[in-house]
Structure formats: structure tokens, C-alpha cells
Design goal:
This is Secreted protein/lipoprotein. 25% of the residues lie in helices and 20% in strands. It contains 3 helices and 5 strands. It starts with 23 loop residues before the first helix and ends with a strand.
């Protein structure tokens, strides 16, 4: 499968390297909007029927579809950020609800700036039953420049937690939490 615009991904056989690049300004906007706090909204233990895809493993079926949706969301966000003017492009194809609102607001904030680069992702997926999935990611936003002043140089990648739901037709990212730099 060819990668979509934006997010770089290593070959499936690569170990857990970073998979894309993102800008310090965008991450600050996203982190502020996400309300980076230590509280959690989900269960720490997956349900007994959960399937976990480990780094280096080849996901299949629902796992691959959930990963494709998650990375597609970031691809759409990167493409929209490069278009400028606060456009959301195809973001609604991959995200809904709170996740869509968060990214839409971040894109709006970056709308007038010259944007360069792309995010580096390292997602891991857990499918819970047939209609819920969780993605935990380590987002390196050091190269995605949304035109804002660089922040916390060298602070490190951010933890990202995403909840996905399957509506009977497709997966959509419905929850998105982006933590502060250095949390991953």
C-alpha cells in the first residue's frame, strides 16, 4: 500500500522507529487544545477480546484498517496544513467528534502561516471487540513547522492517544489526546 500524502512511514518490517515529522508550533496548539493532563479517560487494561499489534508485527484486518484510518487522519491534517487558510481538506473522512474539532481548530490557528514538514509517527493499535480500537503513538513534531516560533527544542516526542470507532462502514478517529513534549 502506498503512503498517502504527508506522513512518512518505514517499511512494515522496520523496528519501532519514528514514522513521520511534525512542527513545534502545531504541537503546542494541539497540546493546549487537548488539555494535556495526567488523567485518563479509558481503561488501562484492554478487554479480554482485545488484539494488540506489537511493533514489527504485521497487522491484519481490523488492526490494519484502524491504523490506516489513524495515519490517514494525520495525512489529511498535514495536507490541509500545507494548503493554508485553515482548510480541513479530507479530515472528516478520518476523524469525527472531538478529534475532528481539535484538529480543525489547530488547522484554523495555523491557517495564515507558511507550513513546512510533516509528522513522524510510531503508532501501535489495540482492537477491542469489533467496533472500538485504541492507538497509542509517539509523535515527533520537531519538523512540522506551522509558522509558529519553535518551542522546547529537544524536549522530545509527544504521547498521543486516539480512540477509534467503527460505524458499520468505516473506522473514524473520535477521541484524540496529545500530550506535552517529552512524554514519549
Amino acid at each position: 500500500m502506498q503512503p498517502r500524502t504527508g506522513v512518512r512511514r518505514p517499511p512494515r518490517s522496520a523496528d519501532r522507529g519514528r514514522h513521520g515529522a511534525a512542527a513545534a508550533g502545531a504541537a503546542l496548539v494541539l497540546a493546549a487544545l487537548a488539555g494535556c493532563s495526567a488523567g485518563g479517560g479509558g481503561s488501562a487494561d484492554p478487554t479480554p477480546s482485545a488484539e494488540v499489534v506489537l511493533p514489527g508485527a504485521t497487522p491484519s484486518g481490523a488492526e490494519q484498517a484502524a491504523l490506516d484510518t489513524y495515519t490517514g487522519m494525520w495525512d489529511a491534517a498535514v495536507a490541509a496544513s500545507h494548503e493554508g487558510g485553515g482548510t480541513t481538506g479530507e479530515l472528516d473522512r478520518y476523524a469525527t467528534g472531538a478529534a475532528y474539532s481539535l484538529l480543525r481548530e489547530a488547522l484554523r490557528s495555523a491557517g495564515e502561516s507558511e507550513v513546512t514538514g510533516e509528522p513522524v509517527l510510531a503508532p501501535e493499535v489495540t482492537v477491542e471487540g469489533g467496533d472500538h480500537a485504541r492507538v497509542t503513538d509517539c509523535l515527533d513534531d520537531s519538523a512540522w513547522n506551522l509558522g509558529a516560533a519553535p518551542s522546547e527544542s529537544g524536549a522530545g516526542p509527544r504521547r498521543v492517544e486516539a480512540g477509534l470507532t467503527h460505524d458499520g462502514l468505516a473506522w473514524r478517529v473520535s477521541e484524540l489526546r496529545i500530550w506535552e513534549p517529552g512524554t514519549c
